[in-house]
Design goal:
globular, single chain, two-stranded antiparallel sheet, disordered C terminus, 2 domains
Length: about 325
């Protein structure tokens, strides 16, 4: 940051830098607090976070009862924007503080937002405006810095959710979320018409209005990118709540939505890898479950490239591979 300012003074005769908040950076107060830390302001505390959030929306402790939105969710937004601003200013202590404050606020109403930040770190990042002449010094990437801290957010969110899932958890296949990162591009979502038929054993036993303890984990299992889903599977298996039936149900529903999206993609005239966008290209991977039976079931999620061509057929079950380790018989020595 000092190099940028020094360059701007020498070349442009100004000490101004231009910062740009990406599309999911929503709380400018976080940027202000991070900037003030450069001039000696102490790191943000949980109490200050609450007061700063209230003042950002024109409230105080005197009229907090009139708030018609989730104050905790707004506080989480501010904490995450504080962390993102810390990355911009290259202040590790600010990043760590923002991440810690956000993790402390994890609950059912905030876990999706916090998980989104951990998966999509580029979208809430603050970056230099590359069109401004004074901002062309250095190669520091604030989004890359945030990615170093992202695993803490993802793991904390997964731990919160999985610890509240029962051992007889059943996937709610109609789960929806407007917050979670979705591996299906927005332009291909909401396609009607089934492409895959789930077997009866995979159908949700829940009603049309499940509680959040059912819908949020279900949405995570259905929406998350492959990498984070594999991590969630590992956490669930470690807590003994991932059965082979549940793993197959998840893959079956994800395959349903993948094939629906591919059919929509074909209607847009995209038929091969070269003409597809980076987001759509990921739909060419088919996921599968491997169930090992050596020392108790070991469930592994994997995927393989099958291309973007849609095959119009009804699939009754997801791809499941069972691995049984065979022991060699040794001849008895005489």
């Amino acid at each position: 940051m000092a190099n940028v300012l020094r360059s701007s003074i020498q070349e442009e005769g100004t000490n101004e830098i231009v910062a740009v908040g990406n599309e999911n950076f929503c709380m400018i107060k976080g940027f202000e607090y991070a900037l003030q830390h450069l001039y000696g302001r102490p790191l943000l505390t949980a109490e200050q976070l609450r007061l700063a959030t209230l003042s950002s929306y024109g409230y105080s402790e005197n009229n907090v009862g009139k708030i018609q939105f989730s104050l905790t969710a707004a506080m989480a937004d501010l904490a995450l924007c504080y962390a993102a601003s810390g990355a911009f200013f290259q202040q590790e202590a600010v990043i760590e503080t923002g991440i810690r404050l956000a993790i402390e606020l994890i609950e059912w109403g905030t876990v999706e937002c916090i998980l989104y930040f951990g998966v999509c770190t580029t979208r809430p990042a603050v970056t230099l405006d590359q069109t401004a002449p004074a901002n062309k010094v250095g190669e520091y990437d604030a989004a890359e810095e945030l990615q170093k801290w992202a695993p803490r957010l993802v793991n904390s969110a997964l731990q919160f959710v999985t610890k509240r899932m029962s051992k007889d958890f059943t996937l709610y296949t109609k789960a929806q979320s407007k917050t979670l990162p979705n591996r299906i591009p927005e332009s291909l979502q909401g396609v009607s018409g089934p492409v895959i038929t789930n077997p009866r054993s995979f159908a949700s036993r829940q009603g049309d209005n499940p509680n959040q303890e059912i819908e949020v984990p279900s949405a995570m299992l259905i929406y998350l990118p492959h990498k984070q889903l594999a991590e969630m599977f590992r956490v669930m298996e470690a807590q003994d709540i991932l059965s082979s039936d549940l793993a197959q149900a998840v893959v079956a529903e994800r395959e349903t939505r993948r094939l629906q999206a591919l059919r929509a993609l074909a209607k847009q005239g995209v038929k091969d890898n070269l003409s597809a966008t980076d987001e759509a290209r990921g739909l060419g991977y088919q996921e599968m479950v491997t169930i090992g039976e050596t020392q108790g079931p070991a469930i592994t999620l994997s995927r393989e490239w099958v291309g973007l061509a849609i095959v119009e057929e009804t699939v009754a079950t997801p791809r499941v591979k069972r691995v049984v380790k065979k022991h060699k018989k040794h001849k008895r020595k005489r």
